[in-house]
Amino acid sequence: MIYLNSIKEGESYREIYLVKSATKSLTSTGKSFMNIILQDKTGTLAAKKWDVDAEDSEIFKPGNFVNISFDATTYKDKIELKIKDANKVEVTKLDDYIPCSPIPKETLQKKLEAYLSQIQDPNIKLIVDELYNKHKEKILTYPAASNNHHAFASGLLYHTVSMLDVGAFLMKHYDHIDQDIILAGIFLHDIGKIKELSGLLPIEYTTEGRLLGHLVIAVNLVNNVATAHHLENNEKVIMLEHAILASHGEYEYGSPVLGETKEAIMLNFVDDLDAKMMMYENNVKDINEGEFSKSLPQLDGRRLYKKK
């Protein structure tokens, strides 16, 4: 297979890729074209298809696999594919098209379950166990985001276990931290993404995800279990819900409340740190040592430097 990260400017190719997104537009002269994002396990590339017709709109639906003939050109110093012809195909072997966790899912699952087994409070443990057992398949396979960080198979699991590792280290340093809230809060703070995101083919936001957001969805999941077991007024359960809602740190970043407990403050910083470390890796992997990345809107426009 010709992977997207191996395509060279000026060359022509034919290969099968996954359609991540596609939008139809018109030039100022009324000429139709499509902006398309193609995906394989190495990442994504932008493509254009000119002279679009109704058949093209069906072929390039997100989630479709397309066999395309194209020229590799450049646009704004980045490779862009100029599609010459395309047809929809069926693909059964998905390993070539879905980026995967750098650590095997089975290894991460064992670590996650070991951490969850350390929860002592029976009510918090009940909530965690019930949600884990009910949603295990999605928790173990879903991405953690659509683009910015951990946007790969088992990305949610990878992000969660990485945060648990950091949280375990910090709890040894800071006194009077409620271990149950940290362990459960890290596990549950992103569980709403199993409803916010559509899955892996492709990674898209659901209507529920766009209208509610994963923090509200997560707290609803927790509250549903708590209410079923008459725990909705339990202080520790409320502290857990607070930590989840405050995990984005600021109102403008999507948190409906700001952290007012040690656990909520710690959870926010662990989440933010782990996400930013992954963003850094994602954005410097394809540049040379001693160079800067492109300007990144998700990181306040900063350009990341890759050391020599």
Write up what this structure looks like.
With 308 residues, the protein is α+β, with helices and mostly antiparallel strands. The chain has helices spanning 54-59, 105-116, 122-141, 155-173, 179-188, 193-196, 207-212, 214-228, 235-245, 262-284; strands at 12-26, 32-40, 43-50, 65-75, 78-89. The chain has a five-stranded mixed beta barrel with strand order 1-2-3-5-4. A hairpin with a 2-residue loop joins strand 4 (65-75) and strand 5. The model has no long low-confidence stretch (mean pLDDT 92).
Question: What general outline do the C-alpha atoms trace?
Answer: elongated
What pattern of helices and strands is seen along the backbone?
EEEHEEHHHHHHHHH
Number of helices: 10
Q: Beta-strand level of the residues, as a percent range?
A: 15-25%
Using the CA coordinates, give the radius of gyration. 22 Å
Record field, number of beta strands: 5
Averaged pLDDT: 92
Record the strand order, biggest sheet.
Answer: 1-2-3-5-4
Q: Helices and strands: which structural class?
A: alpha+beta
The largest sheet, given as strand count, sense and whether it forms a barrel, is:
5 strands, mixed, barrel
How far apart the termini lie comes to 32 Å
State the low-pLDDT regions, or none.
Answer: none
Helix content: 40-55%
